[in-house]
Design brief:
The protein is mainly α. Among the domains are: 203 residues, Alpha Horseshoe (Serine Threonine Protein Phosphatase 5, Tetratricopeptide repeat); 80 residues, Alpha Horseshoe (Serine Threonine Protein Phosphatase 5, Tetratricopeptide repeat). Helices cover 62% and strands 1% of the residues. It is built from 33 helices and 2 strands. Helix 7 runs antiparallel to helix 8 and helix 10 packs antiparallel against helix 11. The longest helix is centred in the last third of the chain and has 37 residues. The protein is extended. The N and C termini lie far apart (104 Å). Positively regulates primary cilium biogenesis. Also involved in autophagy since it is required for trafficking of ATG16L and the expansion of the autophagic compartment.
Length: 796
């Protein structure tokens, strides 16, 4: 090979093409595997490369290498140091290059290129968890302790104090075992102090709840004296509460003050509550001067109704009338933080609170308040505001759901001036419309319109009454007039869209709802109406797009989700349809249409086992419909569980002994399995089929007899014959319809496709200060509730 290499002489400097055929033997890689010197260099030089030094020859440990090509020509690198594998001064430098990543000569000989080593097969399986190891036992025991603490708290919240205490004690025992095991395996620094704290705190709380105060105090002492628990001093508040219950007031005050000293000043609210407890304790001990100091401090820092009231009582006890007046002024200066209209509306379902509100909302003070307020307004220059106050009073009655009082208050304005009369008549029309008394609603709507023709609310209510009577064209005129008087009347615009929808003027209805959407961007009712109109216009893509906007506003609306699933199903996209049907089922698992679709979907996809749970739920919702129970048995049979299917069919036969379909499957299954009951079920099946045939013949003969008597009455002419034929054909059609209906002995086979509507259909434009409601709207809203701890740190 080397005979083809021609090196140009160094003296030939005039040749322009000199050097093009020069060949550096260092780059010859064909026979490197047979080059023993090169292989020895690779084995010895990797990982022991000398540092790079510029222009200093022979920096690496070299040795003479005899290669198969003889001596090589030395080539210097651009940095001045010898190149790898080159010869300098008769000594060859070791080769340090190995090979390019992922490239070997074997790849050129037919092997696959595999830089990632995928041909080596899958990774070995993970090492199985050793459940007998000490660490795993500790982990499981710690999990059990946490579960016991949670169960204790749940039992306490449910009122089962005895069970809560038992769970807390068991958690304490297991936690001590856990600590001992952890000390044997690991160092004491790895003990879970948070778990120990929660176990002890829960145990002390349950002792206190069960009125075992001595045990509770001992447990709290264990926590407080342990310096490893941070902020444990705050629990002295609980210890003070226990001493207060035991009427040991001196110790209660002592522990309250100790807790107050350990709470930083940044926690103002907690410090104020402790001061409140200290003041109450001083009152119980008769130390009114000390109690006054506590309540005065509270009123100066964070005034509250309770502190102000207690301060007045303390001044009354010491007989200081001047200080009582000042304290009362401070008390009435405390903001109630309750709306004037809502202060007599119960915010909760607490029966005690409801009794208090019922007692004070019409007491003498409340009556005097109303009378003086109205009298003062009537005697002033703002006499017109008195009428508005009466209107607001009627609205307040509506908020309190006292419709009779609201109606009586509004009827007082029938003889007032036109503006007030129109407002009162509008609200009366609205109330009667809600009660479906459309005649009274129409009468008061006319009164409101006649009193003030430019009242858009009155015109909208009049349109509602006309709409309820089915005169949609006339209703649209009233809505248009309301919009001409007030273009911002969204109720009239919404109702005119519904009217056009009823009149099948879909383009005009769509324009109305698109205008309304520009005003009310996130109205779920408007979004649904737009989607529904596009569906009626046979534009499913637009309908889907608007429904997607709807579920972005109300993501938990099961009706909207099922409608999306229905549209995707009609388009043939089963996967998307399944996704939305399943979401609808997750939020509202009692929709029989959604359940039926999901069960059928799993049957179509050959997952009959998954369909069983849906048909079982359907059978719970409609226990008298044998169809769902037959579908459950059918799913067992399709999945190959013949014994379970047989038991299900037997149970159905006990509940519905005259069901022919169930008996047919029983006969078939018993025959396939080879059971002796096959003869019994076959006999019952024949008897039922014969009874069914006799019943059908009787129905048919009765119709034929009535047709014959009618033909005899009408005569025997050709025309009569034609009439008989017509009657006979009508009888056959009726018979066909009767046969199509499910009999009492047959499973229910049909399911009607009802229109899904998440918004109200009747136009209801509320004309009082009240949000627009929906009759069929299913929109879930988040309910927020304050969580309560197992033990109140700061009781009132």
């Amino acid at each position: 090979m080397m005979q083809n290499v021609h090196l140009a002489p160094e003296t030939d400097e005039d040749d322009l093409y000199s050097g093009y055929n020069d060949y550096n033997p260092t780059y010859d890689t064909e026979e490197l595997e047979n080059d023993t010197a090169f292989q020895q260099a690779v084995r010895t030089s990797h990982g022991r490369r000398p540092p790079i030094t510029a222009k200093i020859p022979s920096t690496a440990v070299t040795r003479p290498i005899a290669t198969g090509y003889g001596s090589k020509t030395s080539l210097a690198s651009s940095m001045g140091r010898p190149m790898t594998g080159a010869i300098q001064d008769g000594v060859t430098r070791p080769m340090t290059a190995v090979r390019a990543a992922g490239f070997t000569k074997a790849a050129l000989r037919g092997s696959a290129f595999d830089p990632l080593g995928q041909s080596r097969g899958p990774a070995p399986p993970l090492e199985a968890k050793n459940e007998d190891s000490p660490e795993e036992k500790i982990r499981q025991l710690e999990k059990k302790v946490n579960e016991l603490v949670e169960e204790s708290c749940i039992a306490n919240s449910c009122g089962d104090l005895k069970l809560a205490l038992e769970k807390a004690k068991e958690a304490g025992r297991k936690e001590r075992i856990l600590v001992r095991q952890r000390e044997q395996v690991t160092t004491p620094e790895n003990i879970n102090l948070d778990l120990t704290y929660s176990v002890l705190f829960n145990l002390a709380s349950q002792y206190s709840a069960n009125e075992m105060y001595a045990e509770a105090l001992n447990t709290y002492q264990v926590i407080v004296k342990n310096k490893m628990f941070s902020n444990a001093g705050r629990l002295k508040v609980n210890m003070g509460n226990i001493y207060l219950k035991q009427r040991n007031y001196s110790k209660a005050i002592k522990f309250y003050r100790m807790a107050l000293d350990q709470i930083p000043s940044v926690h103002k609210e907690m410090r104020i509550k402790i001061m409140q407890n200290i003041g109450v304790t001083f009152i119980k001990t008769g130390q009114y001067s000390d109690a006054i100091n506590s309540f005065e401090h509270i009123m100066s820092m964070a005034p509250s109704l309770k502190a102000g009231f207690n301060l007045i009582l303390s001044y009354f006890a010491v007989g200081d009338q001047d200080k009582m007046k000042k304290a009362f002024q401070k008390l009435i200066a405390v903001p109630l933080e309750v709306d004037e209209d809502d202060k007599y509306i119960s915010p909760t379902d607490d029966p005690h609170t409801n009794l208090v509100i019922e007692a004070i909302k019409n007491d003498h003070l409340r009556q005097m308040e109303r009378e003086r307020c109205v009298e003062v307004v009537k005697a002033s220059q703002y006499v017109e505001l008195a009428n508005d106050l009466e209107i607001n009073k009627a609205i307040t009655y509506l908020r309190q759901k006292d419709f009779n009082q609201a109606v009586e208050t509004l009827k007082m304005f029938e003889k007032k001036d036109s503006r007030v009369k129109s407002a009162a008549a509008t609200n009366l029309s609205f109330l009667y419309y809600l009660e479906n008394e459309f005649a009274q609603a129409s009468s008061y709507a006319d009164l409101a319109v006649n009193s003030d023709r430019y009242n858009p609310s009155a015109l909208t209510n009049k349109g509602n009454t006309v709409f309820a009577n089915g005169d949609y064209e006339k209703a649209a005129e009233f809505y248009k007039e309301a919009l001409r008087n007030d273009s911002s009347c969204t109720e009239a615009l919404y109702n005119i869209g519904l009217t056009y929808k009823r009149l099948n003027r879909l383009d005009e209805a769509l324009d109305c709802f698109l205008k309304l959407h520009a005003i009310l961007r996130n109205s779920a009712q408007v979004l649904y109406q737009i989607a529904n109109i596009y569906e009626l216009m046979e534009d499913p893509n637009q309908a889907i797009e608007w429904l997607m906007q709807l579920i972005s506003v109300v993501p938990t609306d099961s009706r909207a989700l099922s409608k999306l699933g229905e549209l995707y199903d009609n388009e043939g996209d089963k996967s998307q349809a399944f996704q939305y049907y399943y979401e609808s089922y997750r939020y509202f698992p009692s929709n029989i249409e959604v359940i039926e679709w999901l069960g059928a979907y799993y049957i179509d996809t050959q997952f009959c086992e998954k369909a069983i749970q849906y048909f079982e739920r359907a059978s719970l919702i409609q226990p008298t419909q044998v169809k769902w129970q037959l579908m459950v048995a059918s799913c067992f049979r399709r999945s190959g569980n013949y014994q379970k299917a047989l038991d299900t069919y037997k149970d159905i036969h006990r509940k519905f002994p005259e069901n022919v379909e169930c008996l047919r499957f029983l006969v078939r299954l018993c025959t396939d399995i080879g059971l002796k009951e096959v003869q019994e079920y076959a006999t019952k099946l024949k008897r039922l089929e014969k009874m069914k045939e006799i019943r059908e013949q009787r129905i048919k003969s009765g119709r034929d007899g009535s047709g014959g008597s009618r033909s005899r009455r009408e005569g025997s002419t050709g025309s009569d014959s034609g009439q008989n034929c017509s009657a006979s054909s009508r009888g056959e059609r009726l018979s066909a319809r009767l046969r199509a209906l499910p009999g009492t002995n047959e499973p229910y086979e049909s399911s009607s496709n009802k229109e899904i509507d998440v918004s109200y259909v009747d136009p209801l434009g509320p004309q009082i200060e009240r949000p627009k409601t929906a009759a069929k709207k299913r929109i879930d809203e988040d309910d927020f509730a304050d969580e309560e701890l197992g033990d109140d740190l700061l009781p009132e």
